[in-house]
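Researcher: Going back to the complex we discussed earlier. I've cleaned up the inputs and rechecked each line, so this should be the final set. Can you rerun the prediction on the complete assembly and write out the structure?
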Amino acid sequence: MNKATINRLQTGVPGLDEVLGGGLPEFSFNILAGPPGSGKTTLAHQLMFALATPERPALYFTVLGEPPLKMLRYQQQFEFFDTEAVNRSVRFINLSDEAMAGDLDRVLKRIVDEVAQHGPALVFVDSFRSVALASATGGSPHNKLQQFVQQLGMQMTSWQATTFLIGEYFSETDANPVFTVCDGLIWLRQSVQRNSMVRKLQIMKMRGQPTLPGLHTFRISASGLEVFPPASVAVSRRAFVSCLAPSVAAVFSNR
Amino acid sequence: MAAQPGEAIDCAQTADLAVATWRKIDDALWPIIGHAGMAALFKRSLYLARVDQPALTALVEAEIAPGNFALLHETLAQQSSAEVAAAAQAGLLKTFIDLLTSLIGPALTERLLRSVWDNEPSSVETKDTLS
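Model: Rerun complete. Updated structure for the full complex:
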């Protein structure tokens, strides 16, 4: 019997496909998590502009938090931001009216309505935290949020949309039910060492993918994110030793 | 908003055309920036444009619900001449586009508002404000 074929989408982010173990599984439900300023929204935009086409468009839902005009103002500074793609292969949709009402059912309904109308191959929801905050005004927030995410995941998979939920302030140690629902969990971290910003990316989870474990350095430049996957250990070690003076190489060869 | 050559246009017609344009702009922008975001831009534009267009002064202090241009229509329709009403609308529109441009740049402003000028027979003047 033939088994389901999982297509891997090439993300367009240098180094990321390698870390992901060959790309991003189509129709997967992913979470991009990390603290403010860690590059979540930038990564989401970079993925979106790389993957979206008029035939396979993207919907980018903004909820609360960063005003859309500010987001557009800053994101267009990156080289991947294609103005002509906006309203053609990329569509931004603001859900602040629904979110401010504190009714997650309304937020979900609007998302599903827009997805039904536009038939996107890619869906982004930015940010998850603001969805969570909106739910907090409506009683039993934890259950509602879990229900929301489960419903969203189910709906988006049924609509064959590869989905990204962008979230901040997640605690890695939390038994967050959202992590169980998602297929992929990409964590971005940042720390200041002396006067440099050190950025690391970790694939905490990616169903069905032989991802590269551990923290992978990335940088953000005018062209967006660039991930530096580890070189193949064996090859790099041989190449490294062969470059050394014989006396020094002997030291490494004996290790 | 310009009338066809030789065609007389009164304040009420000018107000109709103005509101039709603002509805198109609202339709183009509110899905992206929200009703509140659109209302904030419109309010700020009224505030800035009133300096050169005193006809708009009364609108600055008014409570305007998002997406409701009835008060703008009323104000423009009450002007002493169609020229005054048209000048107020042109001034407000230019201010709005300049404001949006200052925030997201000319290319994205043009892209987001392209649907407003498409299929608009009398959009020569408004297009000029984008250039």
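Model: Worth noting: The CA atoms of residues 44 and 78 of chain B lie 22 Å apart.
Researcher: Good, that matches what I expected from the previous run.
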